[in-house]
Amino acid sequence: MRIFYGLMIASLFLVGCEKARLDQQVKELCAKDGGVKVYETVTLSTDMYDRYARTNWILPDKSDAKPTDDYYIEIQRHYYKTGNPEMSRRQYRIIRRSDEKVLGESISYGRGGGDLPGPWHGSSYHCPSGESLSIETKVFQRGSK
Fold first, then answer.
1. Stated pTM of the model
2. pLDDT of 53-86, one tens digit each?
3. Which of 25, 33, 69, 112 could share a disulfide with 65, CB 3.0–4.6 Å?
């Protein structure tokens, strides 16, 4: 029985260390290039701005974009570590179709899981935190009718 409790305590310690190590790595990577970058703002007519805003700024993915869509998004995800826990980088870009220019991007990092198994949700850590990564309202400006 002592061996069982010793193994439980050791596994709790190792789980906590791995999560802390990945959370620190997420924090460091985020400090290097995480957040929102706007390369060009676009003034939309009031009607077009309102139409996008009504749909919560859901732009089509590049693979789903129609030839008539002026803007689309590209999402790339890179996994530094898969499994449990996992750690990844997510890059979200807004692109103008006419010249394929990247108008803005947001980059975030995150860790998910790494907890002991159980009936509860796994923990996670993401950054940047507290900052909205919604870049649409930073790229697109409301113009006049």
1. 0.80
2. 888 888 999 999 999 999 999 999 999 999 999 9
3. 69
